[in-house]
Amino acid sequence: MAGQAIHLKKEILVRIIKAFLSDNFEEQTRLIPYAMRPKGMEVPYRCCIYKERAIIKDRTIAGLGFPIEEDDETVSLGTYAKRALERTEISDKNLTVLQAACKGCATNRIYVTDLCQGCVARPCQTACKFGAISIVNGRSVIDDSKCKKCKMCVNACPYNAIVKITVPCEDSCPVGAIKKDETGFASIDYDKCINCGRCTAACPFGAVHERSQIVDILKTMKSKKKVIAMIAPSIAGQFPGNIYQLKTAIIQAGFDDVYEVAQGADITANTEAKEFVERMEDGQNFMTTSCCAGYNQLIKKHLPEIKPFVSDTKTPLYYTAEIVKKEHPDAITVFVSPCVAKRAESYENENVDYVMNYEELGALFIAKKVQIMELEESKYTVEASKQARNFGFTGGVAESVKASLKDEEAIKPLIINGLNKDSIRQLKKYATCGECENGCNIIEVMCCEGGCIGGNATINNQKTAKKLIENLSNNSKDIDKI
After folding, report:
1. What's the CA gap between 56 and 54, in Å, rounded?
2. Which residues of the chain have pLDDT under 50?
3. CATH 3.30.70.20 region(s) of the chain?
């Protein structure tokens, strides 16, 4: 998501949390748009202060956990706050589109600009394999009904006269789940959506939002129930300080205890290694990993043919939540996540009650004035391995499975670094022919480029995040061999 949109989202989350902690949640929530855009303030983004307030109201509705698509503009934010307090169930539709913020971008297409020189060689026409380009009055013209948006003509034009006009949210979606509806604004098809969160990060107007569960989590904390946070491995690269100071900070923010999901990653790696050996002995040519929630949604909705090759091993979150519930049967569990896809996974797991992303945790720290760097360290009951703590970036899962085996040479990994149309076609090809290229026998699939450190709700750049995680893992034990 564009920088300023991220700051807006964070400020609204902080204000929602502060409103909840105040003596009058409903009234303080109602006032958020007016506090952020007071009378007489210079309007920073939109045409007028009223438009700015309307969009802030929509962002606040999403922050309270409601869909904008169902908003009745006559309902006040105070009423939404009251409904959030009364809510007993959360929706499985994780994203919502703020039509007031949506620009209604131009149609996604290939377009010939005025820079066209009408070349005698006609390189664009020669490059097009679909007969979509004709010459009219000496200049190239594209027939949109024939154009496949392959960009061969774009690459062939010596004058860069042909451009692809993109709709960022549509262009980023690997499965075509977000399109303009009859109103001309973006709309999500939840039957197709794999909850990868690409659209939330791609929209330069911040018009696609996660529906937050922050109020539900705060209500649980206030009820005096034991609330336990389960932190994803990639979190080690997101906040200042180390993960031991982070545990202290999370407890100071209102949680009762903190578990590393890397603890479950050790179980995933060892279990997957055993499964890999069994599958190879049974004559299967390759196996894919199964820990990425976005990839699992892709399999379910768009790629069922690869299911026979997917590991049956559960995710690190699954094993960690199982451990927490066994040790604390009455506790409420909250997974602290880098992406929206884990919200979808949580609905299928009775041991995971809520999901909070890194942006929301950061907002909670700000609202409660928690300074991580000033805190002492708290140890974890179980220390995860070096390899498990590397689950957060691309290649980490395959390396963990490999390190779990005594015969590491038996594994020849192939890495799918981000799901897009090309990588999905690649996976379909492997599923159809039943084998992987270059003799590879395990495919690690990560929905986000870079792995979980590239998730839509991360708050640090990937290079820095990876370095911080590696610093932690280099001081950790090696995973046990099987």
Report:
1. 5
2. 1
3. 109-165
